[in-house]
Amino acid sequence: MLNKDWEKIVKDGGVGEEFTSISGMSEYKIQVALEILEGCSYNCPGCFVKRRGNWHPDSIELFYKLSEELKDRKDIVLDDIVIGPTDFFGAENLYDIINDSKLSQAILWMPEDNRNIQHNCSILGSLSEKDIQSKIKAIENSKLGEAVEAWDVQIALDLNRLLDDPIYKQALDDRIETFKSSKLNYEISMATNIVEGIEDRIFDAIEYVRTTYSTVIEILPSVVRSFNNGPKHGDKLFEWNNMLDKLAVDEKRFKERFHFLQGDVSHKAFNYSVVNIHHGSLFMSPFIYENAQIYSDAFKIPINDGVYNSILAYKDEIVNSQIQKSSKKECGNCKYLNICSHRLIPQVMDEVFKQRYECILNKQVIELFDNEDYQDAYS
Known about the structure:
Strand content: 5-15%
Number of strands: 9
Helix content: 25-40%
CATH architecture: Alpha-Beta Barrel
Largest sheet: 9 strands, mixed
Radius of gyration: 20 Å
CATH class: Alpha Beta
Distance between the termini: 43 Å
Order of helices and strands: HEHEEHHEHHEHHEHEHHEEHHHH
Number of helices: 15
């Protein structure tokens, strides 16, 4: 079945559900990205995701320990989890994942409202709709299917085909119907990567998706899901910033239509940590324009005093360190320094983009949202 969580945002404009004042946050949330899926049956335009070498037996064990530590806490809780990095239904180890007893038990220890899984779904790959239906049926009957309260599916789109190709539109319709007929509680959003010419068609695609499916399109730089520190990734981020300049010329349309969570200064920043479990190790994930998975020592969290204590200690240390290091840089005079430090932006600039000195964020576009009611985030 499909739930209607996105309908209010679609009807009320582009401001997301996350725009919350810091004073209104009663819990400290930790979101876990589990990088455990192997293989993919799709070739989505603009994708940099690492397809192989993701699974490690200690990864679920580490998530299990973290969930067990927090199972009786009310002040610190696990938020919905992300399973990736590849397409969920196209992963070769899907059946092992959905029947893993430790994974399902860890989710059952989470607060009931947070027992959600975010995952990717593509269309028109080597899997038929019958294959997808069969896999959903297996999930329905699995331990994971019993533990999870809601499934946040992000369907990867090719915008040109979405607008021009009737076969592609039919495939998308068929996939939506498959989710609708399932016993599972599915929330559907859509996503697209940056590809050439996207800024010329994005608003047409947004209107089509809102009108046809009552949901949003998240437009992603497509690179920060799998950094390899290559120059291509840096170039893509600056292409993204240039695209935002063009799209935000019409400020009203941009704010009402473009689903731009970076403009929400509280999102993935204060009272929040995003961590990535990769190869049985724990990393802090920066939030750039989406969660970034960077597997380097600069972002690795040493586990010394329990898992969640180690996360909080690392976050506190790295936020303060970034602010101190930025005092003599251009960042030191920026009103977003506190927000960016919680999102690890200065750390990314120092450790990943060592040969570039300009900010990796489009602050002019973020500033369009400065009149929202959560300005206490700056303090």
